[in-house]
Amino acid sequence: MTTAQPLRIAIAGLGTVGAGVIRLLEANASLIAARAGRPITVVAVSARDRGKDRGIDLAPYAWEDDMAALAGRGEVDVVVELVGGSDGKALELARAALEAGKPLVTANKAMIAHHGIELAEIAASHDVPLKFEAAVAGGIPVVKGLREGAAANAIERVYGILNGTCNYILSTMEDTGADFAATLGEAQAKGYAEADPTFDIEGVDAAHKLAILAAIAFGSRIDFAAVRCTGISRVRAADIAQAATLGYVVRLVGIADLDPVEGAEPRLLQRVRPCLVPLTHPLAAVDGPTNAVVAEGDYSGRLLFQGAGAGDKPTASAVVADLIDVARGDTAPPFSVPVDQLRTLAPADLGQRTGKTYLRFSVADRPGVLAEITAAMRDANVSIESLIQQGNDDDSDEVLIAMVTHDGQEKCVTEALELLAGSESLTAPPLVMPIISD
Amino acid sequence: MTTAQPLRIAIAGLGTVGAGVIRLLEANASLIAARAGRPITVVAVSARDRGKDRGIDLAPYAWEDDMAALAGRGEVDVVVELVGGSDGKALELARAALEAGKPLVTANKAMIAHHGIELAEIAASHDVPLKFEAAVAGGIPVVKGLREGAAANAIERVYGILNGTCNYILSTMEDTGADFAATLGEAQAKGYAEADPTFDIEGVDAAHKLAILAAIAFGSRIDFAAVRCTGISRVRAADIAQAATLGYVVRLVGIADLDPVEGAEPRLLQRVRPCLVPLTHPLAAVDGPTNAVVAEGDYSGRLLFQGAGAGDKPTASAVVADLIDVARGDTAPPFSVPVDQLRTLAPADLGQRTGKTYLRFSVADRPGVLAEITAAMRDANVSIESLIQQGNDDDSDEVLIAMVTHDGQEKCVTEALELLAGSESLTAPPLVMPIISD
């Protein structure tokens, strides 16, 4: 239907996502050409191992052993970086592509979280697009949704379930009553968790995505280092059961919002933590490896974007959506406003957060422990809404005390925990989970 | 920050949405300018009554008594149509704007459903944008999400809760146990339903939105006339209670999908009907006036977009998002592919649908009625999964028989109902609700 020049792309990285992109461009070639206004064709590729069987025929494409050389090839219009890793070859290629005046499309959340501003500056200086829809929440078009769909709004808060591995583990623990370690093992066996799951379960992956979302939502420079991050490895089956009796589910939630400062730029509050989510909240229904992002705009109200957060096909869908935008001459700045207009926001003090908090103590089963804990709460001005003490299932003499505070400042909870630090009554560090308001 | 020329807009229609757009452009002027690359300023307005108090100062703007004249004003870059109505002044203005080579932004679902293709043709011939994000699902950026975010996908099905009034009524009936008429009255008192609610409760408004979504999803010419539409006015409290005991909620759902045809274009199936939605489905959690749209792509998988489906602020958010796109030189075709490439899809036969169905009969309380109904089911090859007969609450001798069929073709259900047509046993026409699969 179209006689326009094809958009010629080079792909670096031929793992499951790279192969997925090649398959998608072939499977939906005619509809992609119609929507893009011209065909999108792969002309060159690069990966670590040329000979590996990926189930796709690489013969039609030029091969480069040196990934960065893809950027210099004259016939390449756009470079697609699917190598991964915040630095190294991925970053080298990204810089080379943009410096050569070529649009860059990437699925690399770590690279964007660490170097997104630098790359956006190079892109701006050469007036070419830098696009990373696939870096946040897989197949969900939430970068576009925030950057363009919600563009008229001052975003007040952006938060969501940003890591499918953690969500799979937590929702499975909820369904089965199994403990964390067993559920992680099962997730690894099913391919929902990596052999080394640290980046996922400790919240680093979610923190990468949150830092990117915050920059888009608030028009601010990415500040990944300021994300306060707690993973899910200390969440016990007992916590999930306790949350259920209170009307909550446990989810790893990344939240970014602004703490207003009189007469100055607001401070930026970014944290990734296991949270209690009320059953009536849309995030409570997000099960398995699904991701979901909520953006609260001053005019739009609460917007929810939900879908597959990972996987070769959803991620390829996001990569190719970016390519279609590039083919149509997309001009939107990567972080919603031009990079030289992004604000630098100082990190907010987490203690300023106000709300209810769930606290769980593992304590020795002996007299006076409950008095010690409740005294610390009183001394730190933490008001307790409910408290449950229960014996542990196993034969240990460990007892669990779970409590929910009234609305209050988080710094009071921190102070209470400091008062209890080093107490011989505690058999493990306490677990603190904020409660999301409905 | 920016020295670019402002985008100068004219607004026709100063109801709650028009006034909301003016307020939003003022409230968020600096962030809108940063995201749009230039300021967006209102230069001219038109409405029915110049003197009406809208809480905004119209003095800065030129006034036109004749709306269509807005299009001819030399200083106007873009026309925003917020008058409403499928024809008349809105259509006259829309044509005039596009024929004058000016982009048109509209929130008018009826006009797009009836005349969207004609308007897209005029827009294409003058190479200007036609944008209508606000016409579908209020503040939710689902037009953009489908058209651009999911652009790499062959969409297999698009469906959702597209009318906030109906969803408010159905979810309130669920919460309170009240009947339809009382709940409608309450919705009218609260402003969630119009004085004349026909367009909403009979599903016409949802059908407008569904026809637009189907065109974008499938790259096909809008066929509003082919939408099969049943409203919610015949849903009783007893149906909702019955659905609840079976694990479902009742929602008015618009669904569009394709019925494949060997060696030819598929047929398009579009229907708006009250449906039973399993409690585990994301649409079941959509309460009150919220809207939600699900798009199932062949690569993205299931994408969910949820938010406020109406209201002055969310609708203004969508209108201004379109204006920002226009300011940045948006080039995406209104219905995802250029209008001359849209397919003409014949309507599918609704009877081909396969699935479970909920049927409710109101019958006279006398011997033989159940035998008559079950015989008709047998003769039409409808297999019954469960059946409940219950007396009515009031003193009438009417009895309700609710049944759920096994998976089967909908035409069999239709045939069974035809066998029962005219039966003196039935005290009211049967209610048929398809069951959405999870």
Automatic annotation (TrEMBL), chains A, B:
L-homoserine binds at residue 194. The active site is at 209 (proton donor). It is an enzyme of class 1 (oxidoreductase). PROSITE patterns: ACT (PS51671), HOMOSER_DHGENASE (PS01042). One of its GO terms (molecular function) is homoserine dehydrogenase activity. NCBIfam families: PRK06349.1. Residues 358-434 form the ACT domain. Its EC number is 1.1.1.3. This is Homoserine dehydrogenase. Keywords: Amino-acid biosynthesis, Methionine biosynthesis, NADP, Oxidoreductase, Threonine biosynthesis. Pfam families: ACT (PF01842), Homoserine_dh (PF00742), NAD_binding_3 (PF03447). Gene3D superfamilies: 3.30.70.260, Dihydrodipicolinate Reductase, domain 2 (3.30.360.10), NAD(P)-binding Rossmann-like Domain (3.40.50.720). It comes from Qipengyuania oceanensis. GO terms for biological process: methionine biosynthetic process; threonine biosynthetic process. NADPH binds at residue 109. PANTHER family: HOMOSERINE DEHYDROGENASE. NADP(+) binds at residues 12-19. It comes from the Bacteria. Belongs to the homoserine dehydrogenase family. Pathway: Amino-acid biosynthesis; L-threonine biosynthesis; L-threonine from L-aspartate: step 3/5; Amino-acid biosynthesis; L-methionine biosynthesis via de novo pathway; L-homoserine from L-aspartate: step 3/3.
